[in-house]
Amino acid sequence: MPDAQVSETLDNARQRLAQALRDADRPAGHARLLAVSKTKPAALIREAYACGQREFGENYLQEALDKQAELADLDAIVWHFIGPLQSNKTRDVAEHFAWVHSIDRAKVARRLSRQRPSGLEPLNVCLQVNISGEASKAGVAPHDLDALADEVVALPNLRLRGLMAIPAPASDPVAQRQPLARLRQLQEALRQRLPQAPLDTLSMGMSDDLEAAIQEGATLVRLGTAIFGARA
Ligand SMILES: *Cc1c(COP(=O)(O)O)cnc(C)c1O
Q1: pTM to 2 decimal places
Q2: What is the pLDDT of residues 118-156, one digit of tens each?
Q3: Is the distance from the beta carbon of residue 224 to the nearest atom of ligand 1 less than 6 Å?
Q4: What backbone torsions phi and psi does residue 103 show, to the nearest 5 degrees?
């Protein structure tokens, strides 16, 4: 997709989000857009930034670090790490991102907290839940979520913002909403248990299920294809 179109696709994505919020009887601005830029060149991120987009999600650490270096002049950019995270790669994530959505075990969380530089704000984290129970998928199982959340909330340099999930693909809206509703319920239960944690973020909804996610209370939707086009 040529660079010139990002302004248009981003505008469409914003309108789509605004319409979904209206349809769900939720206030405008109740959910925001994370632009997922994995596999896409830094020039497209720069283009989206020029159109006012500030939050970007990346999945692959080395690719993300390279783009961050190229875009170091964009001083209000906010980087989210949303990909699988190995425990031997936590240091770079702790040093170069504002958010991590893919925490699914305590070891990774402990390392991120220990490695977060003292001059930076605490790292904002979401716990990734394996909401559709797929054996091959990342994420903490729902029945292990409480134990993980209890550990994370006690770590000094992390801020527990909420939950994230990538449900199994489903084409009809009813089937799409089921796992999203379940994630919302898990988040509500956690808020009861851990009133001291911010827990204000429900990271769910991608290009194909944005509307369903907004119906179920998403506050941060992660759009890749809808903004930057199909990935090779
Ligand atoms: C790639 C990716 C997205 C974006 O998916 P699209 O379908 O392209 O919008 C969102 N979240 C995660 C975790 C991803 O890996």
Answers
A1: 0.96
A2: 999 999 999 999 999 888 889 999 999 999 999 999 999
A3: yes
A4: -80, 120
86-117 pLDDT, tens per residue? 999 999 999 999 999 999 999 999 999 999 99
Cβ–ligand 1 contact at 165 (below 6 Å): no
Q: List, as own/partner pairs, every contact residues 57-64 make where C-beta atoms lie below 8 angstroms and the sequence separation is at least 24, other chains included.
A: 57/81, 57/82, 57/101, 57/222, 57/224, 58/82, 58/83, 59/83, 59/84, 61/89, 61/92, 61/93, 63/38, 63/39, 64/96, 64/97
- Å from CA of 32 to ligand 1 middle: 15
Give percent of the chain with pLDDT exceeding 70: 98
- 225 alpha carbon – ligand 1 mean position (Å): 8
What is the CA(223)–ligand 1 centre distance, in A?
Answer: 6
Could you give the CA distance from residue 55 to residue 78 in angstroms, rounded to a whole number? 5
- Count structural domains, the chain: 1
Give dist(CA 148, CA 165) in Å, integer: 15
- Give the CATH number for residue 151: 3.20.20.10
What distance in angstroms lies between residue 177's CA and the mean position of ligand 1's atoms? 17
